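Protein in question passed on here:
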Amino acid sequence: QDINAYNGEQPAEKLPFPIIADKDRELAVQLGMLDPDERDKDGLPLTARVVFIFGPDKKLKLSILYPATTGRNFDEILRVVDSLQLTAYKKVATPVDWKPGDSVMVVPTLPDEEAKKLFPKGVFTKDLPSGKKYLRYTPQP
C-alpha cells in the first residue's frame, strides 16, 4: 500500500507487478544488491536499487544497479524494454538516446541487398570522414 500511496494512487491490495520479500536480505546478498557506501542505522549496507531485465529466452539482457541514494529512471527502463523488444525480432540496433519512433540502425551483418528488401522505407548511411558507409539507418520498422 505504501508503494501505491507514494505514487499518488489509492492503496490497493495487489500490485500490478511482483515484489519479492527479502526481509533477511539473503537474496540481496546473493545477487550483489548491497550498496557498499550507504549503511542503515545498524551499520548494515543498504540494498541498492537494482533492475534486472530478462528476455523471453530467460537470459539476462540488462542489469542496472543504482546506489541506494539514487532513484531509478523509469523512462530509461521503458526505453530499454522497447529497444530489446524491437531488436529481438528485427535486424536492427538502437543508437544512443534512441526513443520509440526514431530511426534505427541496420545491423552490420545484414548485406545491403537484404537490407533493401527488409526495409522498404529505405536505408540511409551516415557520412563519415573515412568515407565508409557502415553506419546504416532506416525508419523504425
